[in-house]
Amino acid sequence: AALIALAGAWALSRGAAAGGSGALAGDLLALGAAGFVGLYLVLARKARRETTGLDTAFQATCAACLTAALVCGVSGDAIVPPTLSALFWPAMLAIVASVIGQGMIMAGVGRTPAAVSGILMLIQPVVAAAVAWGMFTEPLSVIQLIGGGLILVGVFVAQMPRRNPRRTPPV
């Protein structure tokens, strides 16, 4: 299941028009992000052994706020937006991504093995590609459509019940 889904993710990312000079840098950033998402799942699984999904998401968000404040302080970036209207999109990100999205991930990680959670999270690029196609009319190539399909097949296979091998009775 993992190999099918990873092949799909590769096809989905490779199917875009051949990128210019930033393609390699983007690929390297995506690879680094994938590593951190994997680490996130492992840490979330460990945290969920001691607390609820909502508590874990809240504590992770508080830690992220403190970390971001420290980075802003060191880099000289503003912590508070200059206008109240500039706070709208960060607030939407906080509600949609941190509270709802991260909360659902934390709840799910507590109920499924980390490896299966990782495969299930590969649905995100499929949804992002579909939304980009629908909202922004970004075209999807044939290889991207095949990649999205492979990801969905991989997710389906990962969710299939495991068959126990039949044990032969002792003679």
Detailed description of the structure:
With 171 residues, this protein is mainly alpha-helical. It has helices spanning 2-14, 23-48, 53-75, 88-109, 114-120, 123-136, 142-159. The longest helix has 26 residues, at 23-48. The radius of gyration is 20 Å and the shape is globular.
For this entry, give a set of tags.
single chain, about 170 residues, mainly alpha, about 70% helix, about 0% strand, globular
Describe the structure concisely:
This protein has 171 residues and is mainly alpha-helical. The chain is built from seven helices and no strands. Helix 6 runs antiparallel to helix 7.
Q: What is the β-strand count?
A: 0
**What proportion of the residues is helical, as a percent range?**
over 70%
Shape, principal axes of CA atoms: globular
Low-pLDDT windows of residues: none
Mean pLDDT across residues: 81
Q: Rounded to an integer, what's the Rg over CA atoms?
A: 20 Å
Number of helices: 7
Strand content: under 5%
Sketch the major β-sheet. Answer: none
- Write the element-wise H/E pattern from the N-terminal end onward: HHHHHHH
Q: What structural category arises from helix and sheet content?
A: mainly alpha
Terminal CA distance = 36 Å
